[in-house]
Specification:
2 strands, two-stranded antiparallel ribbon, homodimer, 14 helices, globular
């Protein structure tokens, strides 16, 4: 099994056992835990946790120490998807090839599931016995500010619907909405193992290129990939009148732009004080992803 | 000025300066910061921060150290009110004598404001330079699990609408929906100053009595207090077919029950290793509140 598949299996199993360990709430018709599980265990690429595990592996081989950060970042990501899919937000009914959370449990339950997941993300790090308190505080500081920035990004996303916008506004939106959490996935893996400031700053620069590349690539794949591979509706940006890189600069230039950004990201890695082959490999795989 | 009013002014001013310190987001039509400010600075009793300051004062006089916890607990409370008021949830249009957040900014923005506030609550503690890392981790652990329990309580609240329920289910709902966060306000104040385990456990027991008393009293006040004093609609429980203590055991028995619970709470305080006069005074004031 390839290392990225191992990381994916690992975070899936950690998420399952973490959510299953939440005590059931007597007298409830339905458990918040189960509403969250429906979305958390629906699959997904687990790209953020894979990034965290990969970056952490550059600095330390003790994989158990990375589990709580890998789970926390995915819980924040899933909470944002549940809230983004709500009728008042992006109004999407399919996610990861299954009905969106609110289509199954109703809007109120979906709002609460997102709220609960955000709280759990902080809880899973604060209660991890393997990490020192001073490191945990740094991790929570990064996670909480990234989670806030992501909400700001979603606000910009809502404000640009049906508008002709400048490529810079789109870039800023992507940096906040998607970039902040990708950046966070990468930083958590480094800070967890007390990486030196210079390495953290190189990884931040790597993350900024990678995050924008990933999102422009998402815009491109939204146009070129069929529903069943995307796990959601094709052409959702165009259908919703959302500006995207292809709609502003065209498909070919968008592809060129994201490939350049991936290359810039890879170039950064040579400056790290540690060997970065696993991260370079992952970046190359991302560049050639088809969904 | 009475000490509780001083605490209220203090937390109002800390919340204002904290939210105002969030950098503005260029290219946004509207700032997430301003949507949050609308609800956070709308007033309110600030009962939770007052509890945190009061408990903290029993153990230490250094009030600056309590500011971040006082703000964090209020941010979690306000986020829950914004989400509870949404049409998909309790569908309330008035809060603190002004239109609910979603009535002014729309549902999507109100969801994001709640999400952002929850993230900020953790951020404000993790970034506080006055508190040691090991204490901060304990505080975040308590805050995150209370925030999760509160979401579970809201789920039960939604499930009991229009149902004939047992008083035990109502009690469990209150303990999760309101009790968890009140309990948290009290524990934060003690843990912040490294109170010994015995004192923390006495305060937990105090908090359990106080939390239930407060909520039953809320049920009573919902029936007996006019809109303008409540800051929201009178009789909202009955209008929404929500079971409440008065609807199950009657108004007189509900009043007796909450008064007894306040007395039980006060009785606990005599076992503390520190002088508890300020907390006794606050409890007595709560017992006689009229809104």
């Amino acid at each position: 099994m390839k290392i990225h598949d191992q990381y994916r299996e690992r975070v899936n199993s950690c998420l399952d056992s973490y959510l299953s360990s939440i005590p059931s709430s007597p007298n409830s018709d339905i458990e918040l835990r189960d509403i969250m599980k429906y979305s958390v265990l629906a699959g997904g690429k687990r790209f953020r946790p894979i990034l965290t595990y990969t970056v952490a592996s550059l600095f330390d081989s003790e994989i158990e120490k990375t589990d709580s950060c890998a789970c926390a970042i995915e819980l924040i990501h899933i909470y944002s998807l549940i809230h983004d899919d709500l009728p008042a937000m992006d109004d999407d009914d399919i996610r990861h090839n299954q009905p969106a959370n609110h289509k199954v449990f109703g809007e109120a339950h979906a709002i609460l599931a997102g709220d609960g997941l955000q709280a759990l993300a902080f809880s899973i790090i604060s209660s991890d016995p393997l990490i020192d308190a001073d490191i945990k505080i740094k991790l929570i500081d990064i996670l909480s500010s990234s989670s806030y920035t992501m909400a700001e990004g979603q606000l910009i996303d809502l404000s640009v619907v049906s508008k002709k916008v400048d490529i810079n506004i789109l870039k800023q939106m992507h940096q906040k909405k998607t970039g902040a959490l990708l950046n966070c996935s990468i930083k958590l893996g480094a800070v967890l193992h007390n990486a030196n400031e210079n390495d953290v700053s190189i990884l931040e620069s790597f993350a900024n290129h990678l995050g924008l590349a990933y999102q422009i690539q998402d815009d491109v794949l939204d146009v070129t990939t069929p529903d069943n591979l995307l796990g959601k509706r094709q052409n959702s940006d165009a259908v919703k009148n959302k500006p995207s890189y292809p709609s502003i600069i065209g498909l070919d230039d968008s592809i060129k732009t994201f490939k350049n950004l991936y290359q810039n990201a890879i170039d950064e890695l040579s400056h790290l004080s540690v060997k970065s082959d696993p991260l370079r490999l992952l970046t190359n795989r991302l560049m050639s992803r088809t969904f």
